[in-house]
Amino acid sequence: MLQLTDCSDAVHALASGSACGKAILLGEHAVVYGQPAIAVPIVDVRAQARVWAGSPGTGPAVYAADLAARFTPESDDQRGTGLVLAAQAAIDAFMGQGPPLIDLEIELRSLVPMARGMGSSAATSAAIVRAIAAHAHLSLDPAVLSRLVYLAEMHYHGNPSGVDNTVVAFERPVWFTRGSAPVFMPVGVSLHLLLADTGVPSRTRDTVAQVRAWRERDAATVDGLTAAIGALVCQAREHLDQGDLAGLGQAMSANHALLRLLGVSTPALDTLVEAASAAGALGAKLCGGGGGGCAVVLCPSGRADAISAALRRAGAQKLYETTIATA
């Protein structure tokens, strides 16, 4: 049931919304098979959407500035299908709650890189939904936002775990198990993270399908690897509770080794992980679906600059830095 609060006293001709990226500290791929995962918001890296009333009969149209392309329900460009789906899901959910929502123009700009394991599809969809809610003068419950974003995630990823839409909607560290309510985690110590981009797109749909196909052939091996990842996630939760950064970093690095065995890492990702470790990182691993994308690196206090330099020398095309504060 929608939980919306009327905010119609704040009327704006131009409404906006934003949403953050995310990183999975531990648990990707295994989470698809019932194991837990820990994900954190990357609040410093965001997508922004602006919404205004369009011309009658135009339907929802999304102009993605970063792609220099405009998408409508009639567009056959697959890059924009999920964005239009997110807009239409919000329109359907909010219909009758405020001003007419049928014909909307939406402008989208995002600093969350596409296909890099940082939740770009969830962030852009969430920004659109938040902007449409603001246009309708409605306060949007994060649980409703998460459900609407998940509809778009199904288009992008086929069988998404639900991690991305959850952490992007709530913007809090999340302990996530598929089929269970998310648990919002207190963090006992600040986490200084770097995300290092290989420059190669990550194809989550493809790597998830790859692991699934292997599991159909050899369930015992894949289930053993995912169970081992799940055990590391549980250890990492204890380390977070205790403020044990060294233990958390060791769990992250061990998680990467298991993801390599699952076949979802790449030489470029492995090189970044090894370079980070050699430069003094507490831990590092691939982030998201793998097959490309980013590595996430846990830095000790005062070492981020040195580790950043090492990652650039190792081939990182771009770096993103953020801090997860204690809560």
What is the helix fraction of residues, given as a range? 40-55%
Biggest sheet descriptor: 7 strands, mixed
* Total beta strands: 13
The fold-level CATH name of the largest domain is Ribosomal Protein S5, domain 2
Shape: globular
The residue ranges in which pLDDT falls below 50 over 5 or more consecutive positions are 1-12
CATH class of the largest domain: Alpha Beta
What's the alpha carbon Rg, rounded to whole Å?
Answer: 20 Å
Mean pLDDT: 91
Write down the secondary-structure element order.
EEEEEHEHEHHEEEHHHHEEHE
Work out the helix count: 9
Just name the CATH architecture of the largest domain. 2-Layer Sandwich
Compute the separation of the termini in Å: 29 Å
* Helix/sheet category: alpha+beta
Which band does the percent of strand residues land in? 15-25%
Query: How many separate domains?
Result: 2
